[in-house]
Specification:
The protein contains twelve helices and 22 strands. With 484 residues, the protein is α/β, with parallel strands linked by helices.
Length: 484
């Protein structure tokens, strides 16, 4: 099920891509996770509550520490970065241990006697990928009943189809057809090229964000530095066709190669048809924005949870610690790392607070708390903007602030995509993401498939409002903070 808005370009934002990731730097073996107890004992006495986590040091753009004014202490942010880096090192070390486990599934083996050597090798390679995916889910999936499915029977049904899949796309479509039967927001197999985009934090895109409005695909955002921006594409245009094919009710972006030229057809607000050949290029997929609002308020937007986002958010709250209020825009935030979300919660409290509870395949419960190291301890008024794309780790932050009456949630119901997942490499350099932990808020709510209801609901913007650059949700948040 798709969540709007989507990025042409970066990817269609769907439930199985919105995630709170336990670790998304896959190690060299299927042993992705490291021991919870080691992490909690080594690092998280820093928080009042034990909060085990897996974390990685992302190779994404880093806001330079030197940008901080000299009046702000740099030590807490550096300590936080060191802690995350050490956790990352342990995660890689724990995952990189040599494993004797050989992934296997009950899928029937393919009779290769009548095949050519190339066909036999292809079928064997396909089954190796399939077996690894099936085995990861079998050993780690949070629900021991697999949503009431016979997981062995599914292997027998889908394994032969996977073995004879003609190419990578067909193989992953078959595997994901099986995984979709679990009906959760996070478990999915990711093709090698898309997996590489996930690892690097950059995707091959032309740089437009699409939003479904009035049965049309509206250009909601244009990425600076992308081909679309250079060609003069503007927010408010309608995307009609891609490579001669109408986008339809659901737009599923194919994986694109850098340098690939995509032919787009647009319709301007004046009714003029514009056809452009746009060259795909790697671009960062996360956006950061901060600016002043009326009454001394501050607007802050970030679109993911990783080390970059953690440092950037803390920096902005430090810089604006005297602001009477902050509007935190999570409408485009589809989630990320648990540790980053816990640090984000800690930015708004003087001391550590319990945040959520997880349950694993064995039924064991664990309580997670905010992380306070380097926290800005922002004490001003707070409003959080949410919508259908607010997912996973962003739902964790929103629900924690709402349940503790620290912020008002303004906008629309969130995605309802909240499970804790791990990621592991596949033999062909693809990736499998498996929901390892179910998540429940401290208020006892399970947000998966339901989402978080806002305190103040604001209808989705109309096409006319979007084209006029009006933002009713932001206006409602400003009015709330200025008139508490």
């Amino acid at each position: 099920m798709c969540i709007s808005p989507v990025v042409d370009s970066t990817s269609v934002t769907s439930h199985n891509q919105s995630r709170i990731i336990v670790s998304n730097r896959p190690p060299t073996t299927s042993k992705t996770a490291i021991n919870h107890v080691i992490i909690s004992r080594l690092f998280f006495p820093l928080a009042r509550y034990t909060t085990p986590t897996h974390v990685y040091l992302p190779s994404r753009r880093q806001p330079p520490i030197s940008d901080l004014p000299s009046s702000i202490s740099r030590t807490p942010l550096r300590l936080r970065s060191v802690a995350l880096a050490l956790l990352s090192g342990l995660a890689v070390l724990g995952g990189g241990c040599v494993s004797l486990h050989v992934p296997v599934s009950p899928a029937p083996r393919v009779a290769t006697a009548a095949m050519s050597k190339a066909e036999a090798e292809h079928a064997t390679a396909n089954l190796r990928v399939f077996d690894t995916v099936w085995d990861e889910v079998h050993r780690k999936y949070y629900d021991p009943t697999f949503n009431g499915l016979d997981w062995n029977d599914l292997a027998r049904s889908y394994g032969p189809r996977a073995a004879v899949a003609a190419d990578t796309r067909a193989l992953y479509e078959t595997i994901n057809e099986m995984l979709e039967k679990l009906q959760d927001s996070h478990t999915a197999a990711i093709e090698p090229r898309a997996a590489n985009e996930e690892r690097t934090g950059q995707r091959a895109i032309v740089g437009i964000t699409l939003r479904r409005v009035n049965d049309q695909w509206l250009i909601a955002d244009v990425f600076p530095g992308g081909a679309a921006a250079r060609a003069g594409v503007k927010p408010g245009w309608i995307a009609v066709k891609r490579d001669g094919v109408e986008l339809g009710d659901r737009y599923n972006r194919p994986v694109q190669k850098p340098g690939q030229v995509v032919h787009w057809e647009f319709l301007t607000p004046e009714g003029k048809t514009v056809m452009l050949d746009l060259k795909v290029q790697p671009l960062p997929t996360e956006r950061f924005d901060v600016h002043d609002l009326p009454g001394g308020l501050v607007y802050i937007r970030f679109d993911g949870f990783d080390l970059t986002a953690t440092r950037w958010l803390s920096k902005q709250l430090e810089l604006h610690r005297t602001a009477p209020g902050v509007v935190l825009d999570l409408r485009h935030n589809s989630g990320g790392l648990i540790a980053s979300a816990l640090f984000a919660v800690g930015e708004f409290f003087p001391d550590a607070v319990p945040v959520f509870i997880t349950l694993d395949q064995k039924g064991e419960r664990f309580r997670w708390a905010s992380l306070q190291l380097g926290s800005a301890h922002y004490a001003g008024r707070l409003a959080v903007l949410t919508g259908p794309q607010t997912a996973s780790a962003a739902e964790i932050l929103s629900s924690a602030l709402q349940e503790k009456h620290r912020a008002a949630i303004v906008g629309r119901r969130t995605a309802g995509a909240l499970l804790a997942a791990i990621q592991a490499n596949l033999p062909d350099q693809g990736m499998v993401q498996v929901s390892e932990l179910d998540v429940i808020t401290m208020g006892g709510k399970r947000l998966e498939d339901d989402g978080l209801a806002p305190d103040i609901e604001v209808p989705a913007s109309t096409l006319a409002q979007l084209r006029a650059d009006e933002d009713p949700e932001l206006e409602a948040a400003i009015a709330l903070l200025l008139n508490p």
